[in-house]
Inverse folding.
């Protein structure tokens, strides 16, 4: 695959849930590109549509959820144009996902070894069982788990070890794209740090791309080169992670998230959250969806949805940047 072909290309993607109250527009006209060997962060408050986006990419939306517009390409291939058989071969081999709840990703009645061996052999039928077992041991070592744990069942492992196993399964077939949905949120800070450090090392070595989803802004900005900020189903800003070290010059929602990062001062922790709540996705506010909470909202924000505007290093969807070029 040429270096300039995006690993992931979301183009005007919308996803809705059918409900009795009407369609819940969980993802609303999202465009985003992830290039080879790149870690892109996707952040936003709870309910902003991050997991829905991830499931849509994997074509794992269930029940009342459906893609209502746009296209999703992975390695240049339209995920929704694939036949069932094609999709089965493609998923996990070329794109994989670490789910928000690690426990539900593992089968409780199957050993770690068997789960890894099954993953490998279902996609690599020519691989012998003994080869697959060797590879399973290597994968555990890669995520820093002693291979003696191969014979363990998920409940015999600590939360951190389970999450390492889930990561090992996600990277087992060396997919070009790995989506990580809050991969360490349930873990304590020390375990989280050690897993993420290892993940960064593996990524640098294997050179796959990651869409890293979290509501933890500072964590994502440390890992990613670029960040997409999601609010009420839309990406309201995209910027290099480096530009987010300064609070000013961003979408007011991004600024709010930056101000909400706990600051350790001499003797206290200050947290300044964003006032109010995300909007009802069945009945979005007219104009900019953020305007009821925005400290800098003015007339146009209540009337018109802002266009997507180019900034020096990314894009922003906000009337305050009106002098910028429309993308
Ligand atoms: N099955 C469903 N039926 C109707 N609405 C749903 C369903 N699942 C999710 N939603 C709604 O879709 C929106 C987006 O949910 P999603 O889980 O994608 O958000 P998220 O950004 O991943 O949140 P979190 O940070 O809590 O994981 C939410 O408002 C949620 O209430
Ligand atoms: Mg989620």
């Amino acid at each position: 695959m040429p270096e300039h072909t995006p690993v992931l290309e979301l183009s005007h993607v919308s996803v809705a849930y059918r409900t009795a109250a009407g369609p819940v527009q969980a993802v609303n006209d999202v465009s985003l590109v992830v290039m080879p060997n790149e870690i892109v962060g996707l952040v936003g408050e709870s309910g902003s549509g991050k997991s829905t986006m991830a499931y849509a990419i994997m074509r794992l939306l269930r029940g009342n959820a459906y893609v209502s517009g746009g296209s999703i390409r992975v390695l240049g291939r339209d995920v929704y144009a694939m036949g069932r058989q094609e999709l089965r071969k493609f998923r996990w081999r070329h794109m994989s996902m670490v789910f928000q709840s690690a426990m539900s990703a593992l089968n409780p009645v199957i050993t770690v070894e068997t789960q890894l061996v099954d993953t490998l052999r279902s996609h690599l039928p020519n691989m012998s069982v003994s080869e697959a077992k060797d590879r399973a041991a290597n994968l555990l070592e890669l995520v820093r788990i002693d291979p003696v744990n191969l014979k363990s069942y998920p409940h015999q492992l600590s939360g951190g070890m389970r999450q390492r196993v889930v990561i090992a399964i996600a990277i087992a077939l060396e997919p070009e794209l790995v989506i990580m949905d809050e991969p360490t949120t349930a873990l304590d800070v020390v375990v989280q740090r050690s897993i993420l450090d290892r993940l960064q090392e593996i990524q640098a070595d294997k050179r796959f791309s990651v869409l890293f989803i979290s509501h933890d802004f500072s964590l994502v900005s440390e890992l990613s080169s670029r960040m997409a900020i999601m609010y009420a189903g839309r990406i309201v800003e995209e910027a290099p992670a480096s530009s987010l070290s300064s609070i000013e010059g961003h979408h007011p929602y991004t600024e709010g998230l930056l101000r909400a990062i706990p600051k350790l001062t001499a003797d206290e922790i200050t947290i300044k959250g964003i006032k109010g709540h995300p909007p009802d996705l069945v009945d979005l506010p007219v104009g900019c969806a953020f305007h009821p909470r925005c400290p800098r909202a003015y007339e146009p924000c209540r009337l018109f949805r802002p266009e997507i505007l180019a900034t020096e290093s990314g894009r922003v969807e906000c009337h305050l940047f009106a002098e910028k070029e429309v993308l």
Observations:
- The two ends are 28 Å apart (CA to CA).
- Residues 108-174 form one domain.
- The chain is about 30% helix and 25% strand.
